[in-house]
Amino acid sequence: MADGEVKRAVYGKARELGVNLVRTCSADAWEERPVQDPEFWPRNIWPWASRVVVLGMPLFAPMMATAPSMVYQELYDTSNRVLDDIAYLLSNYVTTLGYRAMYFPRDCYFNINVLEDDPRAAFSHVLAAYYAGMGTIGDSHNLVTTQFGPRLRIVSILTDAPIEPDPMLEHDLCIHCEKCLRSCPVRAFTHALQQGQDVYDMDAIACTKYHEELVGAHHWPCGICAAVCPVGEDVRRYQMEPMVTPEGIAHCQRFGS
Ligand code: SF4
Ligand code: SF4
Question: Which one of the ligands is nearest to 140 CA?
Fold first, then answer.
């Protein structure tokens, strides 16, 4: 199979399995545009993996607008489970084409409390999606996309299949409205000017501690910084009418599903 055909076959299979967004980056991107320490670079974990295929599916905005709530919790769990299932099936498909493939599962931690010791993920799907041109990284540290803003879940497949990488986006999708910063219930974000550059820092431990409270209340994750983001074709559909009423949000936050 020619290289272009491999890409068409893998992307076609991903869409057949229900994925909305599929993009690829080179595993060398971690080294060429370093953001993380070398221990996180895919090739330092699986040296044969030359490509990372990133899959994205939406978190439906009207459900997310109720966050933190049981409605959002179930959406979050379902989207993670579906994405991991699809990543498993697509990795298997790539191996049937004769290549090596595996996926890095979605939320790789047993319990939110372990993130207090070190909130870093073993593998950043956000960074993989950024390198693959699926979106750019917003001030909220979420991936921001044209289609869904930051309201999506993503998973990554590592492979040696000869899939041509997709270009990174050239323009920033975050419009720096700071709605995410202002809406965070624990004020986890800070904005500072460093050498004339805007730097948006995030206190991941404060965010984690708030999530521990929400787990106790059976209404997690928080997701407010993603829910309020005005970027995305998904929210533009609701510009002429309220996505959810204030009473509806209170209702979903008060009751379980
Ligand atoms: S998820 Fe919630 S607590 Fe964490 S940074 Fe976003 S708004 Fe703040
Ligand atoms: S809410 Fe505004 S500042 Fe935050 S990520 Fe979205 S566009 Fe950027």
Answer: 2
